[in-house]
């Protein structure tokens, strides 16, 4: 019988999932920035692209700390969320509702990340890896701040413009 898998295995699998996801997000954000019509939304996507590159770096530090090679594992969830973002960019290309759609796609991405980082943080805590917790926490805070900014942009201007 195969050895029973442990919380360490679950942690590593999920780390690979979010590593794959972050790299997909690095590829998707420039397209979303290019598509956005609001200059603030465009600037927000560009800023978060920089941060996301930092998230990839932090994950590589986590792999290093746990002594595992930095390797991604296909994350169907992020592929689906990004695919839906592409649909919106396509189908709402010349619509005043395009930016509202982009905000909704970006928030789906951030919520996925927040869920993953929250879980990984709890498991790292359980496994007694406080240095890993700190790295995950730093990224989680940037995802939460980004989600809040997207809400402000949506409610503050983008949604109103979409309804005009
Ligand atoms: Fe991220
Ligand atoms: Fe993010």
Report on this model:
This protein is mainly α. It has five helices and no strands. The protein has helices at 7-35, 39-66, 76-91, 98-126, 130-163. The structure holds fe (iii) ion (2 copies). One fe (iii) ion binds next to helix 2, helix 4 and helix 5.
Q: Overall 3D geometry?
A: elongated
CATH level 1 name: Mainly Alpha
Structure classification: mainly alpha
CATH architecture: Up-down Bundle
Provide the β-strand percentage band: under 5%
Percent of residues in helices comes to over 70%
Mean pLDDT: 96
In CATH, the topology is named Ferritin
The count of β-strands is: 0
Tally of distinct domains: 1
Say which molecules are bound, naming each kind only once: fe (iii) ion
Radius of gyration: 17 Å
The first-to-last residue Cα distance is: 63 Å
Q: How can the largest sheet be summarized?
A: none
What's the layout of helices and strands?
Layout: H1 7-35, H2 39-66, H3 76-91, H4 98-126, H5 130-163
Helix pairs in contact: 1-2, 1-3, 1-4, 2-5, 3-4, 4-5
Short recap of the structure:
With 164 residues, the chain is mostly helical. Helix content is 83%, strand content 0%.
Short key terms for the protein model shown above:
164 residues; mainly alpha; Ferritin; 83% helix; elongated; binds fe (iii) ion
């Amino acid at each position: 019988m195969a050895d029973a898998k442990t919380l360490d295995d679950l942690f590593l699998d999920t780390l690979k999932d979010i590593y794959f996801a972050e790299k997909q997000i690095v590829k998707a954000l420039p397209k979303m920035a290019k598509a956005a019509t609001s200059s603030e939304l465009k600037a927000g996507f560009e800023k978060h692209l920089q941060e996301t590159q930092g998230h990839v770096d932090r994950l590589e530090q986590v792999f290093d700390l746990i002594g595992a090679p930095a390797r991604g594992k296909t994350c169907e969830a992020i592929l689906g969320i990004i695919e839906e973002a592409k649909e919106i960019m396509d189908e709402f290309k010349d619509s005043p509702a395009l930016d509202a759609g982009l905000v909704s796609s970006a928030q789906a991405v951030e919520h996925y990340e927040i869920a993953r980082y929250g879980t990984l943080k709890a498991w790292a805590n359980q496994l007694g890896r406080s240095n890993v917790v700190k790295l995950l926490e730093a990224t989680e805070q940037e995802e939460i701040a980004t989600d809040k900014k997207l809400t402000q942009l949506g409610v503050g201007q983008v949604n109103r413009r979409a309804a005009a």
